Amino acid sequence: MTTLMSAGELETALRDLGAARYHNRHPFHRMLHGGKLNKRQVQAWALNRYCYQAHIPIKDASLIARIDDPDLRRQWRQRLVDHDGTQKGDGGIARWIALTDGLDLDRALVVSMRAALPATRFAVQAYVQFVREKPLLEAIASSLTELFSPNIISERVSGMLSHYDFITPETLAYFNARLDQAPRDADFALDYVKRHARTPEQQSAVIAALGFKCDVLWAQLDALHHAYVNPGLIPPGALGHDGVWP
């Protein structure tokens, strides 16, 4: 990209990329939301997704450690509070554990992450490493998948409540807070990116950063589909290998 886009054109490019590559288009998610999975497959999704949820505050803490501007640090620090809470048993990670509890998964097994798919762990670590090593502008841009999360949350909650008798509103309480948090965070990050991507090279980099994050989310669903749907090859050590289920 050699031509500088306006802020509006950059936002359009980012939204177009998300519309094409966000993981709500993945077949596994369509099955999850459409009631096409059995309970074991839903358990596998929740257990593996915990790995991602648990690393979000680690990712954000590493980003904060690189920020010189105290105003930006304060703004980004809210993400840590949202996920870790202000006390034990509070915050998004605790609510995700409540989700896995509601699916009859052993809490110690979930938190240990030892039964997660290798590809899940690799994808999550790649995201953390990206945020630690890339320029701050690209690290912030990688969070812009939150632009698209309210729609997938609405689809997920309504679809899962409609189709699975083992799902309750309490099980899905994690998503209630995210309907407000994700748009707030996305609006801030989008404004930051639009103001600070001042060259064609920087604009290209932030678009690529969003593409990378879409790949991280997509890769996790590829792994779930391969292991638990088709062809159903669960790797050693992962949930359900050798017929071992909760």
List the helices and strands and how they pair.
Blueprint: H1 7-21, H2 27-33, H3 39-64, H4 70-84, H5 92-102, H6 107-112, H7 118-133, H8 136-141, H9 149-163, H10 174-196, H11 200-228
Helix pairs in contact: 1-11, 3-4, 3-5, 3-7, 3-11, 7-11, 9-10
Q: What can you tell me about this protein's structure?
A:
This protein has 246 residues and is mainly alpha-helical. The chain has one domain: Heme Oxygenase, Chain A (Up-down Bundle), CATH 1.20.910. Helices cover 69% and strands 0% of the residues. The longest helix is centred in the C-terminal third of the chain and has 29 residues. The protein is globular, with a radius of gyration of 18 Å. The mean pLDDT is 96. It holds the Pfam family TENA_THI-4. Keywords: Oxidoreductase, PQQ biosynthesis. InterPro entries: Haem_Oase-like_multi-hlx, PqqC, PqqC-like, Thiaminase-2/PQQC. Belongs to the PqqC family.
- From the alpha carbons, calculate the radius of gyration and give it in angstroms: 18 Å
The helix count comes to 11
What name does CATH use for the topology? Answer: Heme Oxygenase, Chain A
Low-confidence stretches: none
**Run of helices and strands:** HHHHHHHHHHH
Largest sheet geometry: none
| Distance between the ends | 51 Å
Estimate percent helicity. 55-70%
Classified in CATH, the superfamily is: Heme oxygenase-like
Number of domains: 1
Which range does the strand content fall in?
under 5%
Given helix and strand content, the structural type is mainly alpha
Assigned CATH architecture: Up-down Bundle
Using the alpha-carbon principal axes, give the shape: globular
Average pLDDT works out at 96
* CATH class label: Mainly Alpha
